[in-house]
């Protein structure tokens, strides 16, 4: 998409222009993931303070049999009167993952599906060809019998091409509480668009990070080693490199907060002094007051009621939920309605 005034601007440039021209200033966290940003996110996932990845891995490790059963179950898990549960007959599935990362968590489910002889293919979808190539190489090495069919491109374009009913159930996975990086209206629209490319018998499997002790959440987004700070600041480096910006990273500092009433963690880069930043590709300068924030990212946390409402608003009903005892994290399996 191009604006009429600057037809040559890329989507990234347009979004930066719009974000830094708005009040309050903002930058979209979807641009965090250049090579360095992806590397820093891998580091974040190993931090002692960043619990979501370990929480989801624990659910998969401890409940893989139940999860894989639910993916391949032929009938409604609660049989209707006169109908018997038909647990032993498994449906073939296409396991489709949106943004698989390094695939560590998914590997747990794949290993179990292979061991139980389920008829399935694994189809990761990612915008990055390199990410898909690396994942394919890793999984082919780890699981020589796996049928893997990676797709590179926009989620919805790829899913649209997979829409036709081939007799196999699509199980679409969106893990890691990635949905938390969407504002609520965007999350509902995202689920609605997924619903449009799904058939009645398909399933959606979504990871949600739950509301918990606010101190635990803030620490996850403000780690002692400063990796999350580097992750946020890296977007300024990306703007400098790709758009000819002159951001001085020492003049901005990372700030993370959690607002328990909204269950939302937000991160900001705060201008430490009054300054002007010029971005050559936009042919524009932007003034910052001292202590003025740039809103960088929302990481929404959830209650059961919020998940229930989101599923309904997106066109789904909850079929099964997998969570740990403390309700720390939930993987929720949805069925289209
Ligand atoms: C990718 N996403 C779910 C992460 C999160 O928890 O919001 C991104 C992240 N930002 C800072 N730390 C991790």
How would you portray this structure in words?
This protein is an alpha/beta fold and about 325 residues long. Helices cover about 35% and strands about 25% of the residues. The chain has helices at about 10-20, 35-45, 50-70, 105-115, 130-140, 155-160, 185-195, 215-220, 225-245, 305-315, and strands spanning about 25, 95-100, 120-125, 150, 170-175, 205-210, 250-260, 265-270, 275-280, 285-290, 295-300, 315-325, 330-335. A seven-stranded mixed β-sheet has the order 4-3-2-5-6-13-12, sandwiched between helices. A four-stranded mixed β-sheet has the order 1-11-8-7. α3 (about 50-70) runs parallel beside α4 and α7 (about 185-195) crosses α10. The longest helix is centred in the first third of the chain and has 21 residues, at about 50-70. The protein is globular, with a radius of gyration of 21 Å. Residues about 1-5 have low confidence and may be disordered. The structure holds N,N-dimethyl-L-histidine (AVI). N,N-dimethyl-L-histidine binds near residues 44, 176, 178, 221 and 231.
